[in-house]
């Protein structure tokens, strides 16, 4: 790539992402606060991929429930073993998948951490748009995995969109077998998916001090010696330490405010940066990543800057850290973890 083209891509990424969001760009080099990662585009470098024994983790949405045009709802893509797996499907997940160059019909499984609306409101779009030939062309069913209640959601969506499916089938637009949504319920911790060498383990977490928000789970993905963990929404729990020990990439939620007393109830449902730092220090991931960043409500409750979020984390943790932004991507190889940013493919934004 020429110097001119490289500079143009970097500027384009900055225009999309705003100020620097990556705090550490690679586990093979010292953390450099405020550094800009290498930029990859779906159009110049091809779609986000993982080859051979590689695993790739791409943040599709990093927001809280707050409406934010630069941060979509919680969703993360994992690519390994020729599979595309999505963890949570918040607002805008299909858009981010398109920007990353991933056909919506190529999703091999979607995994839910819990049933708050901000984690599932992109699910019907991902399912429905994925079976339309022009936008995805899925050939089989759309499979959703998660704790008890996942099948109920899948069945409810099938009922809700029954009329849409009927007219599309009657019109010859789609085949009935491509429109199915199938929910898979799991009650206990353990392996919930095992295909092509990719193993997904579900484990219980705790979203609130009183256990009112149940079920709530996290996931660990393993493939050929590589691993990634997704905390889901949780306060600090032992299962994160148990399943997160030594993972390559740990994607963890975080919450903080300028004045924690202003949203004390919300704050009590999440993990503070100091608490997350303690978790990172104990589990020692090659790259710690913040996503589902709960950070105030614009115009109502002041949040904190990304730098302050980092500073508070550094009170308890000094290792590699990324304050996630949408389309940050982490390629896990035998050489370590390489952090990049995918420049969105905006060819459809007319």
Written account of the structure:
The chain has 350 residues and is an alpha/beta fold. The protein has a single domain (54-319), classed as Ribonuclease Z/Hydroxyacylglutathione hydrolase-like (Metallo-beta-lactamase, Chain A, 4-Layer Sandwich). 24% of the residues lie in helices and 27% in strands. The protein has ten helices and 16 strands. It has helices spanning 3-17, 93-99, 117-120, 123-131, 150-160, 162-170, 238-244, 264-267, 273-283, 306-313; strands at 38-41, 55-61, 75-80, 83-87, 109-111, 142-147, 181-186, 190-195, 198-204, 217-223, 226-230, 249-255, 287-294, 321-323, 328-333, 336-343. A nine-stranded mixed beta sheet has the order 1-16-15-2-3-4-5-6-7.
Features:
Metallo-beta-lactamase, Chain A, 9-stranded mixed sheet, globular
Distance between the termini: 28 Å
Topology as a string of helices (H) and strands (E): HEEEEHEHHEHHEEEEEHEHHEHEEE
Oligomer: single chain
Q: Total number of helical segments?
A: 10
Give start-end ranges of low-pLDDT stretches: 1-46
Rg on CA atoms, Å: 19 Å
The number of E-state strands comes to: 16
What would the CATH topology be?
Metallo-beta-lactamase, Chain A
Strand content: 25-35%
Strand order of the largest sheet: 1-16-15-2-3-4-5-6-7
Shape: globular
Question: Helix content range of the residues, please?
Answer: 10-25%
CATH superfamily: Ribonuclease Z/Hydroxyacylglutathione hydrolase-like
Question: Biggest β-sheet, characterized?
Answer: 9 strands, mixed
């Amino acid at each position: 790539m020429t110097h001119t083209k490289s500079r143009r891509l970097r500027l384009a990424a900055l225009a999309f992402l705003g100020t620097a969001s990556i705090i550490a760009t690679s586990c093979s080099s010292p953390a450099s606060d405020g550094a800009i990662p290498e930029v990859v585009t779906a159009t110049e470098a091809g779609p986000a991929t993982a080859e051979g024994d590689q695993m790739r983790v791409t943040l599709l949405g990093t927001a809280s429930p707050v409406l934010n045009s630069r941060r979509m709802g919680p969703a993360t893509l994992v690519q390994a073993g020729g599979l595309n797996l999505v963890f949570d499907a918040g607002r805008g997940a299909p858009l981010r998948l398109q920007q990353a160059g991933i056909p919506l019909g190529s999703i091999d499984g979607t995994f839910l951490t819990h049933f708050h609306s901000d984690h599932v409101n992109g699910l019907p779009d991902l399912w429905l748009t994925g079976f339309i030939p022009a936008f995805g062309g899925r050939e089989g069913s759309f499979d959703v995995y998660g704790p008890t209640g996942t099948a109920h959601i899948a069945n409810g969506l099938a009922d809700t969109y029954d009329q849409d499916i009927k007219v599309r089938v009657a019109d010859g637009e789609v085949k009935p077998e491509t429109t199915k949504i199938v929910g898979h319920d799991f009650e206990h911790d353990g392996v919930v998916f095992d295909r092509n060498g990719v193993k997904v383990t579900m484990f219980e977490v705790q979203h609130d001090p009183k256990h009112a928000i149940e079920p709530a789970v996290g996931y660990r993905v393993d493939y050929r010696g590589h691993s990634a963990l997704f905390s889901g929404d949780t306060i600090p729990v032992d299962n994160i330490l148990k399943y997160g020990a030594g993972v390559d990439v740990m994607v963890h939620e975080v919450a903080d405010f300028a004045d924690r007393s202003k949203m004390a109830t919300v704050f009590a449902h999440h993990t503070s940066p100091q608490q997350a730092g303690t978790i990172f220090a104990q589990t020692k991931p090659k790259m710690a990543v913040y996503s589902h960043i709960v950070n105030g409500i614009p115009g109502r409750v002041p949040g904190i800057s990304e730098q302050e979020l980092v500073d508070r984390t550094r009170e308890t943790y000094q290792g590699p850290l990324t304050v996630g932004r949408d389309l940050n991507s982490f390629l896990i190889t035998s050489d370590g973890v390489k952090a990049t940013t995918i420049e969105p493919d905006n060819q459809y934004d007319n």
